[in-house]
Amino acid sequence: MRVTEKELNGHTFTVREWGVEGLPKMLLLHGFPEYGGAWNDLALLLSDRFHCIAPDQRGYGASYAPQEVEAYAMEALVGDMAALIGSEPVIVMGHDWGSAVAYGLAMFRPDLVSHLIVANGVHPIVFQRAIAAGGAQSEASQYINKLRNPKSDAVLEADDFSRLMDMFSSHMDTSWLTGDVLEAQKTAWRRSGLRGMINWYRASPLAVADPGVPIDLPDMPLERFMVYCPHLLIWGEGDTALLPEANAGLEEFVPDLTRVSIPDGDHWVLHQHPKRVAGLIRDWLG
């Protein structure tokens, strides 16, 4: 693994790379509350065939982390990664919030994305419908409103991130998060603080309904949210944060979609089953 700093749109980002220049490029986009180094296990399994590139996204790790909520609008987050990609299309893979940026690139900068891979992440319109319905996904997503509280970062930082750790592992398997892996993750949290990371939630326009109280959504120009490149969705079925309804109807927006489920995985499927996920990616990309 190589760690470098890159200037993207006038700001400094930390970027990790595996594999050699000249191999097909694969951009790996982490979610909350991880950082670029969280891709290490999977990237090592793919680096013989792909040049894997994993940034600390805006607000995370050692990258640019402004304090203002408005600095985390999706347009800015997608713009960061468009600048990192450059001018030639690449394979883009996202997990959790990283999937939102991956979908954003595929929808709004399709010239930069040859193939889209998502692991336990959601398309913005499909997810908005689910969390506005007032059902099980609305209930599972109440943590979003809690994170939007102005004091949430201070609460989660207290006692060496004990409450953040509770959130990380809520009803899911984090047996992989120990030793050096845990210490590296906490080092990233200490370096960035949590404000920028949580500002992704504060800046998002997503509206979360109270359980049993559905929200009426305005009409949206659905054509803007189409994904026309080949798309692989890998899903750990035990995810308690993102339920099956979170991506129900995805085919409406993705004509070329391949779904693969991992029954004994959950939201952290990339860490639980990196060899299986790497095999799925290799097979799908042919």
In a nutshell, what does this entry contain?
With 286 residues, this protein is an alpha/beta fold. It has eleven helices and eight strands.
Descriptive report:
This protein has 286 residues and is of the alpha/beta class. Helix content is 37%, strand content 17%. The chain is globular, with a radius of gyration of 18 Å. The mean pLDDT is 97.
List the helices and strands and how they pair.
Layout: E1 2-8, E2 11-18, E3 25-29, H1 40-46, E4 51-55, H2 74-85, E5 90-95, H3 97-108, E6 113-119, H4 124-132, H5 136-140, H6 142-147, H7 152-168, H8 179-192, H9 195-203, E7 231-236, E8 257-262, H10 269-272, H11 274-285
Parallel strand pairs: 3-4, 3-5, 5-6, 6-7, 7-8
Antiparallel strand pairs: 1-2, 2-4
Helix pairs in contact: 1-11, 2-3
